[in-house]
Amino acid sequence: MLSEYARLARPFFVMLAIVTLGRWLMGTVFAVPYDQGTSVLSIVTLTLFASIVSAVFLRPWLGWRLGKAAGFAMYMALVSQLVILLSTALSYALGIDSYFSNPMALNRQAEPVGMAAALGFRAGGLVVNTMLSGIAGALGWALGGLLPRRAEP
């Protein structure tokens, strides 16, 4: 099942790489302030939309049931949250001031956050955002019932 999820998630992985690279560049190379740039490229928003939209189509085209569609959404969320967690760890380990280590991204406060606390916030986000994407996938699956079923050849 995971290999099937990974195969179907390839377009998402490309978009995730683009958004992640964009966030790295905006926060470092281009020095776009976090409050101005974070809403332009958001990994969480990308993941939620991918969860809804993919599940919409998985139901009528592949005949997936609710649990499998929600599981697929949670798989994409888990991968994206691991990317966020690893990017945060890398930012701290290399001493890079990035969108991933910005205190506003971690706890919505301006005071700097230590690495352990930052990774704790990210671990919480991993759990919460994975669950939210599962719910989004379930919603997408329900909306998929509005699409016509795939015609048999």
In brief:
It is built from 7 helices and no strands. The chain has helices at residues 2-8, 10-27, 34-37, 43-62, 66-94, 103-107, 115-144.
Overview of the molecule:
This protein has one domain. The protein contains seven helices and no strands. Helix 2 runs antiparallel to helix 4. The two termini are 25 Å apart.
Please give the largest β-sheet.
Answer: none
Mean pLDDT: 95
Number of strands: 0
Percent helix range: over 70%
- Silhouette: elongated
Distinct helical segment count: 7
Helix-strand sequence: HHHHHHH
What radius of gyration results from the CA coordinates? 17 Å
Contiguous low-pLDDT stretches (5 residues minimum) are: none
Quaternary structure: single chain
N-C termini distance: 25 Å
Number of domains: 1
Which structural class should the secondary elements be placed in? mainly alpha
Strand content: under 5%
